[in-house]
Structure formats: structure tokens, C-alpha cells
Write a structure and sequence with these properties.
The chain is α+β, with helices and mostly antiparallel strands and 528 residues long. It has 19 helices and 12 strands. A 4-stranded mixed sheet has the order 5-6-7-8. Strands 1-2 form a two-stranded antiparallel sheet. Helix 3 crosses helix 4 and helix 15 crosses helix 17.
Length: 528
Amino acid sequence: MSVGKIKAFEVSAGNWNTYVERVNMYFKANNIKEELQLPTLIAVMGEEAYELLSNLTSPKKPGDMSYEDVIKIMSEHIEPKPSFMAERYRLRQRRQGDKETVAQYLTDLKKLAKHCEFSTTLEENLRDQFVCGLKNDTIRQRLFAETKLTYTRAVQLALSLEAAEKDAAMVERPSVSEKGDAPERGETVHALTSWQPRGGNGVNKVICAVCGRYKELFSGGLGRFSGGKATLRVREGATPVFCRARPLPYALRDRVEAELDEMLRCGVIEPVDTSEWATPLVPVRKADGGLRICADYKVTLNPALLIDRKGAIWNWNERCEKSFKSIKKLLVSAEVLSHYDPNKQLTLTTDASSRGISGVLTQPGDRSDAGGARERLELYEELGCVMWGHRVVTPDGCRDRVLSVLHESHMGIVKTKAFARSYVWWPGIDEAVERTCRECSVFAAEAEAPARHAPCPWSWPARQWTRVPQPEPVEHTDDAIFGRADTPMAISTPQRSHQGRPSTASGASPGLSRAADARSGIPQASPK
């Protein structure tokens, strides 16, 4: 009688590596010989899995191969080896959920670290991510206080502190009144006199009573406004705006999807079938490494909103004056402005709207603005690389090589810049990509030819024997016919004939010039 039972493998939802481990244990428990392992696997794996195996081994039959080769072929197809860099990135982004216990959080960390290839530093990396990703600030600070914290010690302390916190909350919970009065509208009635907190502090009684009565205000998770339904009014005749989704960088797609799923579970958003309004999302990286999903309403809803200002009175008080002066002080500070350098080139950046136009004068190397300070604050280190958001900050020595890799497929300036923004960053990356693309011979060959210049003919003279001016002196080989650079040109309008005036150079006969003047008149210069 065989020990255990192996079911058919589900190709669409099953885990092949786990299935193979169970099959190997089945072979070991039932003492199945090596030559019978492949036939047994084929017999229990099911019709769908066998059909897939037959397609992968074609033209060979699965029965003609070895057991190890069959396992390897199926593993490479169903569960190909993932990128260890991507797996490490997913591990670094993992944080403990609001309703997740420490044990559940640790189990998922181990699962994520399975393909990270940490080798001998596995426990060290697990310890770092485990401690930094804890949601409880008290437990995390307690672990930070340890001088020599190992992975095992960190797990033990975290589990113990979590259990102690739950036990303390259960002990300190106020008891229900023993008077027998039924609570009204589902509210819990607390008898403060029947509960004695540790230390006998009366303040603790009041605090716990308030927390128990209004526990929904102090519970974890996302709070909700229950005072009524908010209504947004738009202007009469406003046209709905439906914007298509903006493309996301590949490195952010999984994180944005996870954040949207969490917002759906919390009731922040809900799915709809159709809508006349659609606003593009803007993911913002938070200081703790998470993402904040925002909406760009300024391009859709904000221009159409009807703001009710009836009865509102504007009052410029001391607080407004203080804020105004603070803004003026910030605008003229060194973080926003810098001294003018006459030796540097000036760049004018303008922007216009239906109501006005604005401009900013900048010079190369001005990094003292608020944007530059914000970028410096957002830099952090990951696996020995300087990161800005999800992009790698590329040093000077590697930029030419990165530009070469970005441009090797010749996607064009716009697509190459969009592709570069998904992975790398350095100051002036857009200009560097444009310069690299324009200097490419393939780009120059495929680019459109510049527009042809319209021909500019000479103005038609009003009479014969008109001097045609020449912009620059030109030496002619046949001075007898064309003369020198200042030689007038005789133009006969009715017959459309051209006659050159004889040269006035030394040695030419003055009689020839007088004869030409007698026939056609004295030459006149045409206007330039």
C-alpha cells in the first residue's frame, strides 16, 4: 500500500518546484526505484501537464528522456529564473502591512529573498529589511537600541514585544458595567470604578475610557469622513474631460498596481464601468520609500469647478501679512536666486497662459534652487549605487557608455529620452540624449531634408543699358567680354539680350565705350 497521494499538477495556478519536492518525498516514502520515477511522474502529473511536457520535448517523447531532464525543462518553462536585481528591489520595498503580524511579515520576506542570491549574507540582509520595515515604531526603536543585533535575536525580540503588547492591551481593557443596563445603539458602557489600572493613576482611567468609547478614532487603518456627502459643482455648460492614462516607468508599475489595490480594499476608490471624466495619476515617492498616488486634477476638473464665494469677505490680517513677507523672503533667498555671473551664458525660459506670460533667467551650473535642493534630499544608496527615486544616478565616466546603449536601437530623440528617464538620471540628461541622436550618421541620413530656400530673382530693369550691381568683386577670366567686377551689364528688355560694356581697364580703347553709349544711352545703376 502506497503512502500518500499525488494529485495532478495545475499548470495555470500550481507551483512546479513545490510539486516536484512533494513528488520526490513520495518516491522516497514508497521506495520507488530510479528507473520507475519518470513513468510514475508522467502517470500522476495529469493530462494538461503531460501535453505541455510533450510540446516542450518535441520531437522527442517524454518517456525517452531522463527524469532530471524532464524536471529541468518544465522548471525553465513554468518558473524561469527571475532577475536577482529585480527580486532584491522587491525585497527592499517590502513593508509590514497594517493588519499583518510579525510572523506573517517575516514569512513573506523569506519568500522574497529566495531568488535574491545573497549567499552568505542572507541573514544580514533579512535582518536589515525586517527591522526597517516594521510598522510598530516602539518595536523598531527597541531593536535599534541593540548593539550587536543578529537576525535570530531581532526575530525573537520582535515576536516577544508584539505578544507583550497584545497581552498588555487585553489586561488594560476596561470592564463592562455590572449594573445590568443594556447598552444603547450598540455602544459599550464602561464602569470606570470597576477597573484599576497599574499604579492607580486616575488619568489613565479617563484616557482608557475615552479610547474605549471612541475606539474607531484610535484604531489602525485609514480614517473616513462621516459628516455628510461632499458635492462638487461645475460651471454651466462645462465639457467633461477624459484624459488617457499616462505611461508609467517599468520600475514603478508593480508598486502602483499594489497601491491601487490597497486603496480599493480601503474603500478610497471603487471601480466603474464608464465615466465622462478621467484624470491621469501622478505617483509620488514618499520619504519612507512608499508611494503616494495623486491625481492631476488641474488638467481636468479644476478648470471647470464652480467655486461658491457668495458672501465671502476678504480680510487682509496680520497672518496674511506675515505669510506674504515670508514668501518674499524665500523668493530672494540663496536657495532660489543666485548672483549674476557676466562670464556665463544666460538662458531665458518662458511660459504663457491665457492671462499672462512669465519668464525665468538662468545660467549654467545654477543648482541652488529649490528643485536642486529637493533632488539632493531624495538621493539615497541602494546596493552601492546612488539612486534618485527609481533611477540610477550615472557618474561622469559612465555617461558616454550609457548614451551609446540607449541610442543603439535608433528609436529617435523622443522615445530615447522617455526610455532613459525610466532607468538613469544625471543633470542635463535630456540635452545629452538630443546631442547624441543628432550626431548619429543614421539619424542624419533618415532625417527630413531642410526646407528649400525660395529663389530670389533680380528685379527686371525699366530701361536698357542698366548697371546691375554685384555684391562682391569677382574676377572673370575673359575681361574682354565681361570686364571687371564693376562692369555694367547691358540688358535689352524687348529682345531679352545681354551685352557686356567694354572694359575700362588700362589699354582698352575709349572709342568702344563711346560707341556703346551712343547706341544705348548712358548707363544707369539699378537699385540694390
